[in-house]
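QA checklist item 7 of 12: single-chain prediction sanity check.
[x] sequence parsed
[x] length recorded as 210
[x] structure emitted
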Amino acid sequence: MDGFNYQELLSKFRYPLLIFLIGMVLVLGGIFFFKSGLSFGGTKVEVLTDGVEENNNSKSITAEISGEVVNPGVYKLSSNGRVDDLLIAAGGFSQKADRVWTDKYLNRAAKVIDGQKVFIPSVDKQSDVLSAKNVGGDQSISTNFSSDSMGLININSASLGELDSLPGIGQVYGQSIIEHRPYSDVSELLSKGVLKKSVYEKIKNEISIY
């Protein structure tokens, strides 16, 4: 009797029971898959976000431009920014900018490093330097523009011969100084590994960056 009732019950409700069982399997499988997929996807998104933030942080540098430009100041550039980009950001040369000096010594294609400072001299300043040096006799144009009014040698524009005239600087060190230009501070001769400290100490009071 009981067996008959079970068979009758199964026969009567076999389709609803079958649909119910299939539905439960699909629901349980879906929940398991969803949880696993969500956890994996979350990890991927987290890694991706970190990577984007790191890239954004490394895409800009900060540099200063002063002297004879329209808008001197501190500007942010891309990590591949050039001196020309910094000059454009500052509005270009002012009317008093020494175009002879910039044409001869300013490398507008040079890559700007983070924290660098670029100085654009005025015509008046270079004229003063020229007058001061001419008191002691005629000087070459190269010397006039590579040294300041105190007689310091500009390591950003001095010729190999002028650098060679510094104490402890020979042809090798002189060439190394030229190859590592530009400098935003004379101390970069040490930080860039251009000179040994003992050599740097001999010349630090005889050089400038503009």
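[x] summary fact logged: Residues 129 and 135 are 10 Å apart (CA to CA).
[ ] second reviewer sign-off
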